[in-house]
Specification:
By secondary structure, the protein is mainly β. Helix content is 1%, strand content 41%. The protein has one helix and 31 strands. The mean pLDDT is 94.
Length: 493
């Protein structure tokens, strides 16, 4: 029986899955996500083993859990089971799939191999010099970090790595920024001297290289995508060559919208955290994959994605964070939606002084501990079929804070109901972020989930606006009252 196609939204994986640093790769007719693996409620980054998810290129809402693909205890020298940071995966000249990864603070790039994109990988070795020693094991060698790999059209293989964080100097290596080395056909042996592409320059007021490089060759151009030191999220540099002359061009995506249409650091539309992701083309449409923080913590990150446009001159405009993400246009203005798809979560109206990095305002969370789904074993696991999975919701909405969703086709929408718990008060429907109220929903105090509702007119939201329309309408909800509330879901009709 053919499955009815669902809508897609951000985060694109089930809310109980925490896959940051996502590298999107199309192999065959499926899109695969290779990323780090955070643990909900963790005290550090990337505490779980690597897993993979995939979706058919024909339906980016139909994500399948591929299971654990590589464990921390599979690296022979990682005897303390230290965390694995952001990986990349490419298909080698021999047709096999190579997973490049980084054991935290090691300054060593390691490689695992498999005959399938999302099978069970086996440790192959460490990226090494011709004399056999692993690069990064000698003090004169530069500090490596999250790897990115390009198997170029001419068959040459390039490894991009490095960091600009001064604190990484404590591990005994020079911090050089982003650098590149060519690898032999064995996918392990370095056959060129490292070349600096983006120098380390740790300045918060400039969009310099931070860490987490991602590489793509698109047409005549090579693209390096990386988080910038000025917190504008994923930026990019372009070159005609894989190993030199990269020039910064701008920002592509920030889950807090810093830099989008001039938005300042203190006007973050969502709690701030780090960034890492990459580009992928699916059915002639380009996307940027990134992540966002949850749970009032930098250590429980979820994957998000947005459509982008690459112009004829190769440049890319910055795109805003939305709830509709991978969907083919705005979400339907009818149906029930989980509250956690909010792309705006603000503790106070934009313009007031608050610290979004402190993560003290509203956040997305879940009602149980980290969820470990069963291994697929031939049966597909997704957000709907996972047994006993925790439920996610927004918590900590206090007086003046707001949640926002972009975008819906509200051509025929006239009613909104919400499921909340906590203090009484009201939810206002706004005509824009931190805007004026066009309708309100009165809430009763309740320790259990309770439904409240109201009629409203979407035309009042878009009145006197040229940037939105009823057919592409945002939904902003601002809480007014004493205490705080949680939101589980809402229904448009």
């Amino acid at each position: 029986m053919m499955r009815m196609k669902r809508q897609a939204y951000n985060p694109y994986l089930p809310a109980w899955e925490y896959i940051p640093d996502g590298e999107p790769r199309v192999f065959g007719d499926r899109l695969y996500i290779f990323g780090s693996h955070d643990r909900f409620g963790a005290e550090g980054y990337c505490e779980n083993d690597y897993v993979a998810w995939s979706a058919p290129v024909e339906d980016l809402s139909d994500w399948r859990y591929e299971g654990v693909i590589f464990r921390k205890d599979q690296t022979p020298w990682n005897t303390r089971n230290q965390a694995y940071y952001a990986p990349d995966c490419v298909q080698g000249p021999d047709g096999r799939y190579y997973l490049y990864y980084f054991v935290v603070n090691s300054s060593i790039i390691s490689v695992a191999v498999c005959d399938k994109p999302a099978g069970k990988y086996e440790y192959l070795g460490d990226v090494s010099l011709p004399d056999g020693h692993a690069y990064g094991t000698k003090p004169e060698e530069w500090f490596t970090f999250d790897p990115a790999v390009l198997v170029d059209d001419d068959g040459r293989i390039w490894l991009y790595t490095g960091s600009s964080q001064p604190e990484n100097g404590q591990y005994g290596h020079e911090i050089k920024g982003c650098f590149v080395m060519e690898l032999a056909e064995d996918m392990l042996t370095v056959i060129s001297k490292p070349q600096i592409l983006l120098s380390a320059k740790w300045v918060y007021t400039e969009p310099n290289f931070f860490e987490g490089a991602s590489i793509r060759h698109i047409g005549e151009w090579y693209y390096l995508v990386y988080p910038a030191t000025n917190m504008t999220g994923l930026n990019y540099s372009m070159s005609r060559f894989p190993d030199r002359d990269f020039v910064h061009k701008g920002a592509i995506h920030c889950s807090s919208n810093i830099g989008y249409q001039g938005r300042s650091l203190m006007q973050a539309s969502y709690p701030m955290g780090n960034s890492h992701g990459g580009l992928v083309c699916i059915k002639e449409q380009w996307y940027i994959f990134d992540h966002r923080v949850t749970n009032g913590s930098p250590f429980s990150r979820q994957g998000v994605a947005e459509k982008i446009t690459i112009h004829p001159d190769g440049t890319i405009d910055m795109v805003e964070s939305t709830s509709c993400g991978l969907n083919d246009g705005p979400l339907k203005g009818s149906g029930t939606y989980p509250a956690y798809i909010a792309c705006v979560l603000m503790g106070k109206p934009a313009g007031e002084m608050f610290n979004p990095m402190a993560m003290t305002g509203p956040c997305v969370t879940q009602d149980g501990p980290d969820y470990d789904p069963p291994e697929p074993e031939g049966a597909e696991i997704n957000g709907e079929t996972a047994k006993d999975a925790p439920v996610s919701y927004i918590t900590g909405l206090e007086d003046g804070s707001q949640a926002g969703y972009k975008y819906f086709d509200m051509t025929n929408t006239r009613h909104l109901s919400v499921v909340t718990r906590g203090a009484g008060g009201k939810l206002e429907i706004l005509n824009g972020e931190s805007g004026e109220a066009v309708a309100e929903i009165l809430l009763s105090q309740s320790d259990d989930w309770a439904v409240s509702e109201t009629d409203f007119t979407p035309e009042r939201i878009v009145a006197e606006r040229t940037d939105i329309a009823v057919s592409r309408c945002p939904l902003f909800l601002r809480y007014q009252g004493e205490g705080s509330i949680d939101i589980l879901e809402f229904t448009l009709s």
